[in-house]
Design brief:
Blueprint lengths: L1 E4 L6 E4 L3 E3 L2 E3 L5 H7 L7 E8 L3 E7 L7 E7 L1 E8 L10 E7 L5 E4 L3 E7 L3 E8 L8 E3 L23 H4 L15
Antiparallel strand pairs: 1-2, 2-10, 3-4, 5-12, 6-11, 6-13, 7-10, 7-12, 8-9, 8-11
């Protein structure tokens, strides 16, 4: 696997070595020893999967400490624009974001450390999205930021004249940064 640190320290793009032949392909999606050596030790405790149609936008979500989550995300089917925003107050990249296309074709993964808001926009007709987390989902600690928060400047690649398909909760998310970002850059 090829580990590429992004312009935001702690966030990594992981490109697997894919072995193809007439039968199809094979790749190692996760190898703990290699991951720990390149990224650092993360104890993933759960893996989740979602299926979404074209135009769905999920996010931007995060959880407060001590329930913040590190995530390792990838797409099994389709294509998404995956976005992570640095909410670590003392980070030199606070408020900056990563936007990367993840797809069944490129098989890239994105590691998002604790202290980031995360979301994705489905670009294909359908997408199956999977992610590992290192902390359980804790509804009372979950927070959201509106996807179009102006200070982030995210280009979600939403076609002009259309609106993303979103949950009511995501539509109601605040559009300003909150004082409860108690994440610390490590």
């Amino acid at each position: 696997m090829n580990y590429i640190e992004t312009n935001i320290p702690g966030a990594w793009i992981i490109e697997p070595s894919v072995f193809s032949d007439p039968r199809g392909y094979f790749f190692e999606a996760f190898k703990k020893a290699e991951f720990d050596e390149n990224v650092g030790t993360v104890d993933f405790i759960q893996e989740n999967e979602s299926c979404s149609q074209k135009g769905v936008l999920r996010g931007l979500h995060y959880q407060l400490n001590p329930f913040a989550q590190a995530k390792l995300v990838r797409v099994i089917k389709g294509t998404v624009l995956d976005v992570a925003v640095d909410l670590r107050r003392n980070s030199m990249t606070f408020g900056q974001h990563i936007a990367i296309e993840l797809s069944e074709k490129n098989k890239r993964q994105l590691f998002i450390p604790r202290g980031f808001a995360h979301g994705f926009h489905v670009l294909s007709d359908e997408a199956i999205f999977t992610y590992k987390v290192d902390n359980p989902y804790t509804p009372t600690m979950e927070r959201s930021i509106r996807y179009d928060e102006p200070s982030f400047g995210i280009n979600w690649r939403i076609p002009e004249g259309t609106e993303p398909i979103m949950s009511e909760k995501d539509k109601a998310a605040p559009s300003v940064l909150k004082e409860d970002f108690n994440f610390v850059y490590k």
